[in-house]
Amino acid sequence: MKTYLLVGIFAVLTLYVTALSTYSSNAAPAPASDTPTLVKAESPAPEKTATLGEMLNKGGPLMPALYALSFIAVCLIFYYLLSLRQELIVPSPLVSQIEEAVKNKDLQLVEEICNKNDVPLSKVVLTGIEVIKSPHATYEMMKDAMNDEGSRQAGNLWERIQYLQDIAIVSPLVGLLGTVMGMIVSFGALQSEAMTPRPTMVAKGIAMAFTNTAAGLVIAIPTMLIYAFFRGRVKRIITELESKSSRISRMMIDIVKPGAAISKPEYRNSK
User: Fold this and answer.
1) Is residue 12 part of a domain?
2) Residue 244 is part of which domain span?
3) Average pLDDT, the chain
4) What is the C-alpha separation between 271 and 207, in angstroms, rounded?
5) Per residue in 12-24, pLDDT tens?
6) pLDDT digits over 202-217, tens only?
7) Is 99 domain-assigned?
8) Chain-centre distance of CA 185, in angstroms?
9) Positive or negative CA dihedral for 134, 138, 141, 144?
10) Structural domain count of the chain
11) What gap in Å lies between CA 161 and CA 42, rounded to an integer?
């Protein structure tokens, strides 16, 4: 699992660096020729369309921050695709093993199974087992403990995908800051006493402003849509986690009766 994740992140990083290198090479100006060329007035050269790299290079000093946010968002998306899966949070084989051990009232086996599988479901069941070990344990105490641990595990899953929403919120703000900086450059050029560079500086500031605004929105909109997708996936996983945990806790009612304490839990090979 971790190997696949590292390979995916490395592949994304390689593609990202390759894309940036391509944009930089496209944005590089053509070398000036020492030999003057004569252009006929009646046949003007066609206007060259700006490439994506040229447009991005007009964004100014905040574009690297937007590049970084987009790269982090892509890495998070690949990480969530690999890690936020039901078979990794609530594995069906694990549920079957736990239920079979609970039916046999073999709490030691249940504890061994959960310790070997470091997943949220195992942590919820282990919490219930820890309560059962208490000499004054009741079914209500065990159920409340499992519900609390389930809520913590659900909170961890929600917090995991929260980073995507944070990027979707921060990206337009960074773009807005770049827009303000571009407008400052434009207004500064209007106040300049030099007449020759004034139109060029105004155009440069406007280009910086619109490029940052567009880049921030291009990052934020897809990120928010993908966050909504993972939000639905996490909701389904949490629902399944609650369902399986409740089913296992109900099966434990034969081990710990409601309102009754147990003096000693039943363990395998106990004398």
Assistant:
1) yes
2) 2-20+54-254
3) 77
4) 81
5) 454 554 444 444 4
6) 777 888 888 898 999 9
7) yes
8) 35
9) positive
10) 1
11) 60
